[in-house]
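Interim report, section 4.2 (structural modelling).
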Amino acid sequence: GNVPAEQQQQLMQEIEKMQVRDSLRMYNSLVERCFRDCVESFRRKDLDSTEEKCVQSCCGKFMKHSARVGIRFGELSSEAETQMAA
Amino acid sequence: GNVPAEQQQQLMQEIEKMQVRDSLRMYNSLVERCFRDCVESFRRKDLDSTEEKCVQSCCGKFMKHSARVGIRFGELSSEAETQMAA
Amino acid sequence: GNVPAEQQQQLMQEIEKMQVRDSLRMYNSLVERCFRDCVESFRRKDLDSTEEKCVQSCCGKFMKHSARVGIRFGELSSEAETQMAA
Amino acid sequence: MSASGGQPDPALAMEMAKQEMDYRVALFNAMVSSCYEKCIDKRYKDGDLSVGENSCIDRCSSKYWQVTGIVGQMLGAQGAMQ
Amino acid sequence: MSASGGQPDPALAMEMAKQEMDYRVALFNAMVSSCYEKCIDKRYKDGDLSVGENSCIDRCSSKYWQVTGIVGQMLGAQGAMQ
Amino acid sequence: MSASGGQPDPALAMEMAKQEMDYRVALFNAMVSSCYEKCIDKRYKDGDLSVGENSCIDRCSSKYWQVTGIVGQMLGAQGAMQ
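Predicted structure of the assembly:
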């Protein structure tokens, strides 16, 4: 977009806000997902070691997955911009 | 609601913002839904013609569905307002 | 957080806004959930008495559930703060 | 940016009008997606709605609306809407 | 509307307080809906929680909270929270 | 806070830039969660992605992107994006 120079700073602040908001949302959805996939039994109030390990793997997998999609997303966006400019 | 006249314009701007935001959200959820329902195989990186046709049908159906619910929603809202006023 | 005194009022207003927004969101998600779990047949346009009773029970259960999680959430938050301070 | 006296606050009225819109949009979207799940055949042979789907949508919209009424009454009764 | 110097920015503190609230509300809502799925019998014979459901809710809340801790540590460790 | 004349409105440009970002973030998040459901083995034996999962993610991202194109064209064609 074509944003006037004097509003660039305001835009940067908005981006920062969004990044915080988005990383909190990602954190929340990661907890929800790994809880749903890993915790099935409610006969105790503490996680057992299998559940803990599962949550750690889930979290690790999700972060790697998300990073990889990020790379592909960047590539696909650049390609699209190149095609638009051509 | 009873909004003072001088804020009507601001409200209109808010409505416009909401409409843009909402149509983008609708677009995103439509992509998510049609992708989920139509794309099952990941042995290639391009959609095949069956998948493409499925996405088009899904999209067409959703838009017609959404339009029809919109009409019903309007009717139900009017009925409710009529009953409130009576 | 350490919010300057003169912004406390603005923060209170934000909290109020959030509470309204959040109770509307809760209302919406409750309707969605109880509709999904209780209404299966679309051979008539009005709810039958079994569906109505189901929606009422669903709603009652959800509110009691939500209240109980709220109590636990409060306890867990306090424990966490106590541990942080120690 | 906000009136700090006791008189009616235009920013508040504005905020309430905005929240009412937000609420109606969210209600509509939830009705759309709930009835989509209940009524639409996901095989997507073509892009048109069948007669059965169309009448399901009408009844589904009506029932969904009735559920909002019941839930609203119950939340109101228990004062849970704050 | 925003301080452009290097000194502490009240609008920023405000924004952070707001985001902390947003976060806590979202966490609570996710806990409510996650434990609802895990613990509640969806046959809805009546509107009360059974003894089994109540104790499931308590344990579920506790376990959900522990999962937030593990995930928080892992995100922190990998600096993925930016 | 907003220009009321006919000339280009910086607040509007700002708003559009913000919505574009919002949109891109939402698109990315939807791609992440859609491809997670399609590609990732939920048994979570360890925290690494297998070779099969990695290639599935690449193809899934590509196909997801193509779906955004088809849906965009169809919404544009019917003027449904307002």
